[in-house]
Fold this sequence. Notes:
By secondary structure, the protein is an alpha/beta fold. The chain folds into two domains: 15-40 and 285-380, Aspartate Aminotransferase, domain 1, CATH 3.90.1150.10; 42-280, Aspartate Aminotransferase, domain 2 (3-Layer(aba) Sandwich). 42% of the residues lie in helices and 15% in strands. The protein has helices at 15-25, 42-53, 66-80, 86-89, 95-107, 124-130, 149-155, 178-191, 218-221, 230-233, 248-261, 267-279, 282-285, 287-301, 330-341, 369-380; strands at residues 29-30, 90-93, 113-118, 134-139, 160-166, 194-198, 224-229, 242-245, 308-309, 317-321, 343-344, 346-347, 360-364. The strands form three sheets. Strands 2-8-7-6-5-3-4 form a seven-stranded mixed beta sheet, with helices on both faces. A four-stranded antiparallel beta sheet has the order 9-10-13-12. Helix 14 packs parallel to helix 16. The model has no long low-confidence stretch (mean pLDDT 97). Bound molecules: pyridoxal-5'-phosphate. Residues 34, 95-97, 121, 166, 170, 198, 200, 229, 231, 237, 240, 242 line the site of pyridoxal-5'-phosphate.
Amino acid sequence: MSVFESKLPELKTSIFTEMSLMASEYDAINLSQGFPEFDTPEFLKNSIQNAIESGKNQYAPSIGLPSLLEQVALLIERQYATKVKAQDNITITSGATEALWGAIHTLVRQDDEVIIFDPAYDSYEPAVELAGGICRHVTLNAPDYQVDWDVVSQLINKNTRAIIINTPHNPTGTLLSEKDLQQLQNLVVENELYVISDEVYEFMTFDNFRHESVLRYPKLFERAFVVSSFGKTYHCTGWKVGYICAPKLLTQEFRKIHQYVTFSTFTPAQIGISSMLQNHPQHITELSLFYQEKRDILSNALKKSRFKILPSKGTYFLLLDYQAISNLNDIEFCHWLTKKVGVAAIPLSPFYKNTTKDKVIRLCFAKNESTLLAAAEKLCQL
Ligand SMILES: Cc1ncc(COP(=O)(O)O)c(C=O)c1O
């Protein structure tokens, strides 16, 4: 075949793959890709092993195992004081990625516009494009990455179908506030839009900041999909198990797509996670403090460096401004950092449609203390 017309001609290898490959080639400390260095809890591993040994190895119901759906409904009630129905509102998915894909394909029709905020997680735009839609980008800038809702309002037109938000936010570690959610709610209700809320870091917020889930805002939730990932919550990103919560009608439409994308999600993991939620609820209540300590280890160790540390209120990412150290653009700087300094980080410009001149990089602190201290020692030498 000499010519093949790509459906995603502009898409290149993701920056996460590129930096992780470079980290291993140069034997650098890898603070680039966002995955934990430590293992998933023993109880969860044992539960999954037991499920496999006892022959629970066939398809789960397409929408998810009833016991896991129930546990997620209880979790939502505990966290956000919101009652949802397991069978009507929750669907278990193969990672948040599948949930986002399905939500986007449920909502987006040919030529619909979807508003996203840059820096944006990289799976949103290809999914919107493959659904026939167009992303309209709102640029957020360092150091605070605040949303100007007037700018969002001006972008809304008769083709606007949905707004995708992500809080706690990857890559910046910022949180949307109660005021942000209220402004979003006003725009969504007034213009009859939909929301996809990517909340995969929902249990990782610091310094007593509260995660403002869309699930706390009934009028907003009426027009929303809320997405989460057990991979983030239980340090098992490789299992790809997540869930999506939405009103009944949206859930019904979502499930039509879900059944022909994956049909159902890995049964033993659903059994294990259900049992983990039931028997060890403290894992979730302790998660913020667990990650806050890691954030503090890294940021304290970097205090004497020439990097400017930007505030991280949630997620497991910390942004550093390197203006005082180098004039290189952020991609060149990350390449240099990996090859010459021995620390791999992620540049922020690939998260922007219209690029950015901010000299900011992202470090992942979901690592052991020794790894964080070894990386900080190298960075302090610059
Ligand atoms: C903001 C955001 N959304 C979605 C995902 C995908 O989650 P999953 O691995 O469960 O598909 C990630 C993973 O890094 C993420 O950071």
